[in-house]
Amino acid sequence: MTYDDNNIFAKILRAEIPCKKIYESEHALAFHDINPQAKIHILVIPKGKYISFADFSKNASKDEIEGFFKAVGKVAENQNLVDDGYRLLTNHGVNAGQEVPHFHIHIFGKQPLGPMISKI
Ligand code: 5GP
Question: pLDDT at position 49, please?
């Protein structure tokens, strides 16, 4: 599978479509999910062209990986999610129902988040 330059997050990175930006660094961009599933639902994406976590963890540089995960932590902290708790989630591939083929981490918070997975 090759990276699709026309995926929605690639367009957000190129500022071709808007987003509600929360944080930006050399390696990451964070913005509100357009269809929030919790009181706080933020997406953090790397600036590089990585399809999913599998691609990112295998092919991103140490700087990109460090910069990206530091950004996730910083966003959670800046949004005051640390004391009450929050959840990180990433979907890779079909079984996980990944919709957008640009690696992203969801951050959920500001409410009790229930069980991790609804049922087996
Ligand atoms: P996935 O299922 O790939 O893990 O999650 C994709 C997420 O991207 C979904 O939660 C969906 O609501 C969000 N999303 C899809 N299109 C847009 C968009 O144009 N803008 C923003 N901010 N979020 C989007």
Answer: 98
Q: Give the per-residue pLDDT at 117.
A: 84
- Ligand 1 centre and the CA of 42: distance in Å? 10
Work out the mean pLDDT of the chain and round it to a whole number: 97
Which residue owns the Cα nearest ligand 1 atom 21? 34
Mutate to test the pocket of ligand 1, among 7, 35, 53 (most ligand atoms within 8 A of CB): 35
The answer to whether 12 touches 31, Cβ cutoff 8 Å, is: yes
Residue 1 pLDDT level (bands cut at 50, 70, 90): confident
The number of the ligand 1 atom at minimal distance from the alpha carbon of 97 is: 2
What pLDDT, on the 0 to 100 scale, is given for residue 118? 74
Query: Catalytic: 92?
Result: no
Annotated catalytic residue, options 27, 92, 102, 104: 104
State which ligand 1 atom lies nearest to the alpha carbon of 104: 4
Over the range 9-22, which residues count as b (16 or more CB within 10 Å of their CB) and which as e? bbebbeeeeebeeb
